[in-house]
Amino acid sequence: MKLYFIYSNKMSCFYCLASREKDFNRVDEKDRESLGASGFSFHELSLATKGFKEENLIGEGGFGKVYKGYLSSGQVVAIKQLNLDGQQGSNEFVTEVIMLSLFDHPNLVKLFGYCTDGDQRLLVYEYMPMCSLEYHLFDPEKKALSWKIRMKIAVGAARGLEYLQCRAYPPVIYRDLKSANILLDHDFNPKLSDFGLAKLGPIGDKTHVSTRVMGTYGYCAPEYAMSGKLTLKSDIYSFGVVLLELITGHKALDFNRKSGQQNLVAWFRPYFNERRKYSKMVDPRLEGNYPLRSLHHAIAITAMCLQEDANRRPLVSDIVIALEYIASKSNSHCNTCQQPQPETDIN
Ligand SMILES: Nc1ncnc2c1ncn2[C@@H]1O[C@H](COP(=O)(O)OP(=O)(O)OP(=O)(O)O)[C@@H](O)[C@H]1O
Ligand SMILES: [Mg+2]
């Protein structure tokens, strides 16, 4: 039986492509045509980045270096160049091309194309001018994100996840949801990126798919880390970690903090049932500028997403509705806001 991956008006035989994911060169011309993204030559991308000049370098992750580039059409793009040392990256490259070619949603980053000249593997994305959520949330040099912006980012990221879980068939398990993979446009609209680890979720009577444990420590659901059994609820847990980062302004994992505060979830879990301490959990950089009721609701959703029992974590569609409500209430002026809090026993 062939399974078709259906998104808006795009339909492709996903498994036909995915089964050839080990080697992109084995994906034939017909298959390539069914991918939405176009092929670029290495020469074109070299011209776009002035020969991959240092001044065009935006950042670097596990996959390789990312450059800002200008296509001959004038389009500004981000070009990710696979580090040729690792085999793993090559598999992720194909998964990324296939997945992103089929997705179409304002909260998922767009892939314009790819390059497979010789050994070279490059990905060409829409350029996201405000970098990643991680960059804004944890860099003390950056202006603190307001509560309103934080909730806007939470809603958009949840909508992106809802698309993957509810609009796709088979549904997609992202596996790499983290603040570094939430990119921001000039208006702080978030877009999920990096689908190289994504997996097709269970269908029919199946409750999970079994995989090698991948992802980023600190964001990984405990049951997945222990058993390798992956479900849609694994991503809900990671989403809860991102929510907790947005609320507290602390990283999921930070070995520079004292022991007991290095793992964000372990640190804050005891406070989820203590409403009177909620305002002490908040990022001090907000200086008390948030509606208290919104904060209570946001922490309640976070606590539900982070439940140890995966079955008790909420559905992504319910998370979207709840966050949309919070965001709508976060526009009001902060006459109900907390005054700045002194450093407390929590922080
Ligand atoms: N489309 C894009 N537009 C603008 N900047 C981008 C884009 N894609 C990635 N970047 C930036 O490039 C840097 C590296 O991103 P990359 O996705 O390669 O690594 P990462 O997600 O930070 O870490 P890793 O992939 O190793 O887990 C990040 O700082 C990110 O903000
Ligand atoms: Mg990334």
TrEMBL record:
Annotated ATP binding sites: K80
KW Nucleotide-binding (keyword) present: yes
EC number: 2.7.11.1
Record keywords, A-Z: ATP-binding, Cell membrane, Kinase, Lipoprotein, Membrane, Nucleotide-binding, Palmitate, Serine/threonine-protein kinase, Transferase
CC per GO annotation: plasma membrane
Enzyme class: transferase
Membrane-topology annotation of the record: Lipid-anchor
Principal location class: membrane
Isomerase is among the record's keywords: no
Pfam families per UniProt: Pkinase
Protein family per UniProt: Belongs to the protein kinase superfamily. Ser/Thr protein kinase family.
Protein name (Swiss-Prot/TrEMBL): non-specific serine/threonine protein kinase
Organism: Lupinus albus
